[in-house]
Design goal:
mainly alpha; single chain; 223 residues; rod-shaped
């Protein structure tokens, strides 16, 4: 028959994991393993999809430990239907038995876990730095845009004011011209009135109205 699956190694065995598989002082052993691994990961390739953690691990050149027993594989094993509902101690012993059967030291799995965690932490800092750079860049752009808006606003307001002043000046000129026109027409009407019964000359009613009416002169024609 073929090689048994990893869970067959312990599914029918109800005994503690081999003593050699567990360190005498777990806390100290883990601390020593952590100290032996660089705190900052170096990425050697581009990560196109930050949500694809496999790309992050690949960029950090994290290779699978002996037997392919990565911490990710162990995590999947712990969620297996065969032991998922078992008590924590039994799940722990099951994994240790599987590692022992595959001649995989627990240390290599812990090292893999630490490397992946540090790769994720380092990449988080990379993303945070990129985010902060983007924030600073966009803040500078926004400041420039606001300054441009302020400049354009002042410029447009100045043009609006100039337009208003030009209109007011032209209105005053036209009103003054109408006043002069009224005087001229009245002078003409007065002169014509000496010679006609019905004065044909019109005069402007008032300056600035923009309208006119027939206002014949009132003097009688001289005989």
């Amino acid at each position: 028959m073929g090689t048994k699956k990893w869970y067959n190694t312990f599914i029918t065995v109800d005994r503690p994991a081999p003593a050699a598989s567990a360190p005498a002082d777990p806390a100290r052993a883990v601390a020593e393993i952590a100290a032996s691994i660089a705190p900052d990961t170096q990425f050697t390739s581009h990560v196109s999809d930050p949500n694809a953690f496999d790309q992050i691990y690949a960029a950090a050149e994290i290779s699978s430990p002996p037997g392919g027993y990565t911490i990710l594989k162990v995590a999947d094993m712990l969620q297996s239907d065969h032991i998922r509902t078992a008590p924590p101690e039994m799940r722990k012993n099951s994994i240790l038995l599987a590692l022992d059967a595959a001649a995989v030291p627990l240390k290599s799995v812990i090292e893999d876990a630490i490397r992946r965690d540090r790769a994720l932490d380092t990449y988080e800092r990379v993303q945070q730095k990129a985010f902060e750079d983007l924030v600073a860049k966009k803040a500078a752009e926004t400041k420039d845009i606001e300054a441009e808006i302020e400049r354009l606003t002042k410029e447009r307001q100045a043009r609006i004011q100039a337009n208003a002043e030009a209109v007011a000046k032209e209105r005053a000129r036209v009103d003054d011209w109408r006043l002069q026109k009224q005087k001229e027409e009245q002078r003409i009407a007065d002169a014509v009135s000496y010679f006609v019964t019905e004065n044909p000359i019109t005069t402007t009613l008032s300056p600035g109205t923009g309208g006119s009416s027939t206002d014949p002169g009132t003097r009688d024609t001289k005989r």
